[in-house]
Amino acid sequence: MKGKPTGGRGVTTRLKTAKGRSTASQKWLERQLNDPYVRAAQAAGYRSRAAFKLIEIDDKLHLLKPRGRVVDLGAAPGGWTQVALQRTGQGDSHAGKVVALDLLAMDPVPGAIVLQGDFQDPAAEQAVLAALDGQADLVLSDMAPNTTGHNATDHLRIIALAELALDFALKVLSPGGGFVAKVFQGGTEKDLLDQLKARFATVRHVKPPASRKDSAELYVVATGFRPASQTGGA
């Protein structure tokens, strides 16, 4: 599936009553009801509108390939896992392997290997490698911490989470592999960028159309992974 959901503007849906709801809750519900990506996700059978973010990133950068081995960190509810399966050849002779890992229990995704655990736990790392039966070609992270509303704090927290995801990726990626992680606008921290540039051939930022315009989120995408043995690192 490619591109942005299509269709006319339609009629804006407003909730008939806000009784018992906060103003923020009311606005969130109305936004969900009127979001074309939410409707498109429901129509396509995706578990979340976030599936379209990965679709749009992949349409642009072609990260997901037939027979690819993919790890989806913080995978619940599974929208990115579904897209990864489709684009690595689910159900045909060129099928790849997709491993979804989340701290919380996640409903099975047919075709994927769903694991529950903390990606910072060495046991989880070994379980992922065993499930892949080898190194990964791509590590995905759409993870984000709970926001506080304080931009500087939220920025630091998501950068810290991206750095942890990168640490995991460096341990499981095969040469030439890729890494995608959510960050917030405001500039990726220098330490994170330095690590990425030292270990990947290309590093860029992408804000897919499915990311809401009022959202500070964007994605850092690194490709052409170089193991430490190729960079002179430890």
From TrEMBL:
<keyword id="KW-0963">Cytoplasm</keyword>
<feature type="binding site">
    <location>
        <position position="78"/>
    </location>
    <ligand>
        <name>S-adenosyl-L-methionine</name>
    </ligand>
</feature>
<feature type="domain" description="Ribosomal RNA methyltransferase FtsJ">
    <location>
        <begin position="46"/>
        <end position="225"/>
    </location>
</feature>
<comment type="similarity">
    <text>Belongs to the class I-like SAM-binding methyltransferase superfamily. RNA methyltransferase RlmE family.</text>
</comment>
<dbReference type="InterPro" id="IPR015507">
    <property type="entry name" value="rRNA-MeTfrase_E"/>
</dbReference>
<keyword id="KW-0698">rRNA processing</keyword>
<dbReference type="InterPro" id="IPR002877">
    <property type="entry name" value="RNA_MeTrfase_FtsJ_dom"/>
</dbReference>
<feature type="region of interest" description="Disordered">
    <location>
        <begin position="1"/>
        <end position="24"/>
    </location>
</feature>
<dbReference type="GO" id="GO:0008650">
    <property type="term" value="F:rRNA (uridine-2'-O-)-methyltransferase activity"/>
</dbReference>
<feature type="binding site">
    <location>
        <position position="102"/>
    </location>
    <ligand>
        <name>S-adenosyl-L-methionine</name>
    </ligand>
</feature>
<feature type="binding site">
    <location>
        <position position="80"/>
    </location>
    <ligand>
        <name>S-adenosyl-L-methionine</name>
    </ligand>
</feature>
<protein>
    <recommendedName>
        <fullName>Ribosomal RNA large subunit methyltransferase E</fullName>
        <ecNumber>2.1.1.166</ecNumber>
    </recommendedName>
</protein>
<dbReference type="InterPro" id="IPR029063">
    <property type="entry name" value="SAM-dependent_MTases_sf"/>
</dbReference>
<feature type="compositionally biased region" description="Gly residues">
    <location>
        <begin position="1"/>
        <end position="10"/>
    </location>
</feature>
<keyword id="KW-0808">Transferase</keyword>
<dbReference type="InterPro" id="IPR050082">
    <property type="entry name" value="RNA_methyltr_RlmE"/>
</dbReference>
<feature type="binding site">
    <location>
        <position position="142"/>
    </location>
    <ligand>
        <name>S-adenosyl-L-methionine</name>
    </ligand>
</feature>
<feature type="binding site">
    <location>
        <position position="118"/>
    </location>
    <ligand>
        <name>S-adenosyl-L-methionine</name>
    </ligand>
</feature>
<comment type="function">
    <text>Specifically methylates the uridine in position 2552 of 23S rRNA at the 2'-O position of the ribose in the fully assembled 50S ribosomal subunit.</text>
</comment>
<dbReference type="Pfam" id="PF01728">
    <property type="entry name" value="FtsJ"/>
</dbReference>
<feature type="active site" description="Proton acceptor">
    <location>
        <position position="182"/>
    </location>
</feature>
<dbReference type="GO" id="GO:0005737">
    <property type="term" value="C:cytoplasm"/>
</dbReference>
<keyword id="KW-0949">S-adenosyl-L-methionine</keyword>
<keyword id="KW-0489">Methyltransferase</keyword>
